[in-house]
Amino acid sequence: MAPTLQSVATVLGLLLPYWTVHALPTSRANSACCDAFRNQFQAVQLDLVTPGAYFSAQESDLSPSCRVNPTTAEEVSQILSTTTQLGCKFAVRSGGHMPWGGSANIDEPGVTIDLGFLNTTTLSEDKQVAHVGPGSRWGPVYDTLSPDGLVVVGGRSEHVGVGGYLLGGGISFFSPRFGFASDNVAGYQIALANGTIVEANSQENPDLFWAMRLGSTNFGIVTRYDLKTTAATKMWGGIRSYNRSHALDAAQALLDFDKKSGELGLDSAGLDIGSSDEFFMNFDRVEPNINDTDVYDSLLSIPFTSDTTRSDVTLKNILQEIDALFPIGLHASFRTLAFTSDAQFMIDWWQEGLKIFAPYEGNSDLSWTFAFTPVPASLLQAAEQANDPQGVSANNGSVMLTNLNAFWQDNLDEDDIQSKLAELIGWGQTEAQQRGLLNKWVYLNYASPDQKPYESIPEANLQRLRDVRQNVDPDSVLQNLWPGGFKI
Ligand SMILES: Cc1cc2nc3c(=O)[nH]c(=O)nc-3n(C[C@H](O)[C@H](O)[C@H](O)COP(=O)(O)OP(=O)(O)OC[C@H]3O[C@@H](n4cnc5c(N)ncnc54)[C@H](O)[C@@H]3O)c2cc1C
Ligand SMILES: *[C@@H]1O[C@H](CO)[C@@H](O)[C@H](O)[C@H]1NC(C)=O
Ligand SMILES: *[C@@H]1O[C@H](CO)[C@@H](O)[C@H](O)[C@H]1NC(C)=O
Ligand SMILES: *[C@@H]1O[C@H](CO)[C@@H](O)[C@H](O)[C@H]1NC(C)=O
Ligand SMILES: *[C@@H]1O[C@H](CO)[C@@H](O)[C@H](O)[C@H]1NC(C)=O
Ligand SMILES: *[C@@H]1O[C@H](CO)[C@@H](O)[C@H](O)[C@H]1NC(C)=O
Fold this sequence. Notes:
Largest sheet: 9 strands, antiparallel
Bound molecules: flavin-adenine dinucleotide, 2-acetamido-2-deoxy-beta-D-glucopyranose
Mean pLDDT: 93
Number of strands: 19
Strand content: 15-25%
Shape: globular
């Protein structure tokens, strides 16, 4: 993910409060589940909305019959048993950053299971593994590990949640070297549909262990992640902004970067271009400086209008810079498309966006952006070696991943914006196909609810995921009662 909201912050000319509190309505439909929770639990808190619980307005606008905040795996298991026995629809929230309405929240009579208090990080005795609660955000996870000089393959934002991120892949600054974040999970503790708590790792329940890497909301509620640790290093990086007149040069330079960035897997860069007068590039090297590499040369030669790149920074410095560009509480949408890198296609697609969104030109209440991230062959190879269920392949070299994102204010027409975004993705898909560039990978963490990440994976993997689901949830309870997330 890369910055897009410098535009909103400056163009909108408004300062949004970082945390947005959403009061619960006073009267709500009766819910047998909420009554049961009240009778069942002493410790579990009900109806507590953590400020800033959700990234998008579409999520925070929903209002469940109650929210329940378990603090242990056993409580999650009891809640899940109650919910399935009484047949209540439910949602599960960890970091609340999946933007679409209903992904991690639900309207009454549904109930929301909020894992925000399951947010501890502890190291194993040999420090090889971090035990991380699903309700943790990546910032506190990194902060906890950093005194030991350690890090895990995790989010490029301090605020994104561990829980959802790891169930859809997870692209990290460490991914070019180690693969998706999910490929670096050593084990899971999971509450299954019937309330049973199981461990899934290479020894216990190995099929479920494999499946969880693309688990979304299909197999159970994860109550603990065991993440492999690796040595932390200082970084080089930052963000530059550019005059639009250099867009084609930048897209071409990104291809050059992609060709040069090698097997060491230290380098990440991204191009953000859309409705803003300017476009942006982010540079993120997992080494303290760039003295020994030429991979960034072409990118750095493009004339810029502002620049924060610097040596010897911490991961935290980099993340805080990115997060400052993503205010919480706006209407938000993510969509995705993958293709074989091609500078002219990127520029043509952007131009098509300017055409489709012409009715909003100059409207400071909306910003939309293509965040283009090269996914290097080294990342795809690492995922392939780990037999990642996404089934991505390094056979054809690197892939350009698109996150088409948009942010807008309450007063604008949700349906109109969503349909324009869908039209823009549709144009890209058709055009990429015609130019022989389309890659059918639909990255789950960036997908919108009308996209189908599971249909994009190899059939054999899909069948194996279905078999695992049949084993852990033979009665399709989660399919029926848990509408959020992506279903196989
Ligand atoms: C500002 C921003 C930056 C981002 N940066 C990146 C990035 O760098 N790389 C990347 O790959 N993605 C990134 N994403 C996408 C992000 O990975 C997904 O939105 C992810 O789902 C967020 O996880 P969460 O726990 O915060 O979300 P939530 O909204 O809480 O959960 C997402 C989904 O997972 C389900 N879920 C959550 N926890 C559990 C659990 N314990 N057990 C079972 N199901 C669960 C929820 O029910 C929901 O359907 C970013 C998103 C935003 C908004
Ligand atoms: C866990 O969440 C609680 C409640 O939001 C918060 O007070 C606490 O600081 C969090 N702990 C960590 C390690 O983030
Ligand atoms: C961008 O570059 C063009 C062409 O050089 C120039 O006309 C324009 O004023 C520049 N825009 C900004 C915002 O600097
Ligand atoms: C590498 O770059 C850093 C930061 O620019 C600089 O301080 C350092 O002297 C350089 N080292 C070498 C060996 O050139
Ligand atoms: C590689 O490219 C060829 C030709 O475009 C295509 O037929 C094939 O499916 C691609 N393979 C993978 C693994 O993406
Ligand atoms: C719960 O489901 C799992 C997976 O299907 C099964 O192995 C276990 O026996 C079930 N437990 C109970 C108590 O039914």
